[in-house]
Structure formats: structure tokens, C-alpha cells
TrEMBL record:
PANTHER family listed in its UniProt record: GLYOXALASE/BLEOMYCIN RESISTANCE PROTEIN/DIOXYGENASE, GLYOXALASE_BLEOMYCIN RESISTANCE PROTEIN_DIOXYGENASE
One Pfam family hit: Glyoxalase
Lineage of source species: Bacteria, Bacillati, Bacillota, Bacilli, Bacillales
Classification via InterPro entries: Glyas_Bleomycin-R_OHBP_Dase (IPR029068), Glyas_Fos-R_dOase_dom (IPR004360), VOC_core (IPR037523)
Organism: Paenibacillus cineris
UniProt-recorded name of the protein: VOC domain-containing protein
Residue ranges constituting the VOC domain according to the UniProt record: 1-127
Length: 127
């Protein structure tokens, strides 16, 4: 068994698609109409057959509440691995990404956290 798709709730699918593709550099894999929303997935440019990230609309009240509460508590909704966190931090800053935590050493890990503009905090990590 393996993880093929994981989702993240977003307040606006179009804005999320733009942010995750243009600012972060993920590649759109699927964009299929499903009722009033779309099944939009992205993949890493380095692993285009790898795990897909689904931009899930937060239109359900429980999804909105969950998203709002973990954001308010400073809990990242997802974690993405990077090879060199300082280089990635600089690249994302140059792309206009707003960080809530600069790269910080935590034991064997270095982490940083940014706002995805769609209701989530996202953590990047270098092991």
C-alpha cells in the first residue's frame, strides 16, 4: 500500500492552483470539473508520478472550522521536504511567499513555515 493522493483544504481553488504552481513550483497533474468544483491535483516537478496533492474545496462547515482552527493555533496543514531549506526559503521569499517562521533548527531537522494565502500554514523541512 502507498499514498497516492493527499488533500489540503483551500478557500479558493483558482488562487491555490496559482500559488502552488507559480510560487511553489508544483506541476498541475489533474484539473477535472466535479460539479461546481474541480478535482485539481499537483505533483512535485521531480516526482511527476509520485504522490499527488489535491486542492480540496473547504465548502463543508467542518472543513472550514478545522482549517480556521489549526491556522489560528499555528499548526501547519502539510509538510513538504526540501534538500536545502535556506536556498528554498530565499527562493520562496523572492517569489513573494510570506513566512510565519524563518528556518529554525529543531533537533536533526530544520523547519520553516509559510502562509499559502488559501487558509493554511505550510511547513517545509530539511532532514
Amino acid at each position: 500500500m502507498k499514498i497516492v493522493v493527499t488533500s489540503i483544504f483551500v478557500s479558493d481553488q483558482d488562487r491555490a492552483l496559482q500559488f502552488y504552481s507559480e510560487k511553489l513550483g508544483f506541476v498541475k497533474k489533474e484539473d477535472v470539473p466535479v460539479g461546481e468544483y474541480r478535482w485539481i491535483t499537483l505533483v512535485s516537478p521531480d516526482e511527476q508520478n509520485g504522490t499527488e496533492l489535491l486542492l480540496e474545496p473547504n465548502n463543508h462547515p467542518a472543513a472550514k472550522e478545522y482549517q480556521t482552527k489549526i491556522f489560528a493555533d499555528g499548526i501547519p496543514a502539510a509538510m513538504f521536504g526540501v534538500e536545502d531549506i535556506h536556498t528554498e526559503y530565499k527562493r520562496l521569499l523572492e517569489n513573494g511567499v510570506k513566512f510565519t517562521m524563518e528556518p529554525t533548527q529543531m533537533g536533526d531537522l530544520t523547519i520553516a513555515v509559510f502562509d499559502d494565502t488559501c487558509g493554511n500554514l505550510i511547513q517545509i523541512v530539511q532532514k
